[in-house]
Amino acid sequence: MTAPPRLRVDLTDVALARDGRPVFEGLSLTLTERRVGVIGRNGAGKSQLSRLIAGLVRPDRGEVRVDGIDVARDRRAAIRSVGILFQNPDHQIIFPTVDEELAFGLTSLGLTRAEARARVTATLARFGRQDWAGRNVQTLSQGQRHLLCLMAVLAMEPATILLDEPFAGLDLATELMLNAILSALPQRLIHVTHDLGALAGYDRVVWLDAGRIVGDGAPAAVIAAYRAEMAERARHAGTEF
């Protein structure tokens, strides 16, 4: 049997509507790069794109595959392959203690409780947070909860990590700390962001507008075109906004 392709995201003729409003109509996109940024105005479809790739949303038409896996239909395989880090950690954390939060995804992968406990211990040690063992999540700061979510994703060892505005609302020190961790990861990152500076050094940037790809390619060129378009729209704010 041929092994599934690696480091490849394929969206094929994807249609998606939310609350009766079309988000995507016939979107096709292939990503093979290790670092990909996704930019665009609010409502452009960026977050829905990340949820489609993570398998959290099923397209109304078309197919989404990550490394050969149909993420909407094969959820067990999808959670092994793709992790997602949301903007608000409180939308992601569901258990009262750090240990339970870290262990949940691991048991979902099929690890025994003993195996999950061992990996939780190793994950806490990796980040120098052994003192968090047994700690109530509510005692963690906002930045610490962001780190906990990242730790939970990394404990599951996915090949792809989706970042949906992960630095929004963080103080500079926490943002720099998390960015340093993410930059050093071997995993593929797909980063949805309004912070254009966060995409420095990325391999590719995709610009979405109203569910359509209007820019795609080298980050410097796409970001420059995006800035110019936003500046032009701002000059015509009275008629376009």
What does this structure look like?
It is built from eight helices and ten strands. It has helices spanning 46-54, 75-81, 98-108, 113-126, 142-155, 172-183, 219-235, 237-240, and strands spanning 9-18, 21-31, 35-39, 61-66, 69-70, 82-85, 160-164, 188-192, 204-209, 212-217. A six-stranded mixed β-sheet has the order 6-7-8-3-9-10, with helices on both faces. A hairpin with a 2-residue loop joins strand 9 (204-209) and strand 10 (212-217). Helix 3 (98-108) packs across helix 4 (113-126) and helix 4 packs across helix 5. The protein is globular.
Task: Give me a quick take on this structure.
This is ABC transporter ATP-binding protein. The protein is 37% helix and 25% strand.
The strand line-up of the biggest sheet is 6-7-8-3-9-10
Query: Ranges with pLDDT <50 over ≥5 residues?
Result: 1-5
Annotated CATH architecture: 3-Layer(aba) Sandwich
Global shape = globular
Q: Care to count the β-strands?
A: 10
Instruction: Please write the string of helix (H) and strand (E) elements.
Output: EEEHEEHEHHHEHEEEHH
Question: In CATH terms, what is the fold-level topology?
Answer: Rossmann fold
- How many domain units? 1
CATH homology superfamily: P-loop containing nucleotide triphosphate hydrolases
Q: Provide the structure class.
A: alpha/beta
> Class, according to the CATH hierarchy?
Alpha Beta
Report Rg.
Answer: 19 Å
Q: Major β-sheet, in short? A: 6 strands, mixed
Strand content: 15-25%
Mean of pLDDT: 90
State the helical fraction: 25-40%
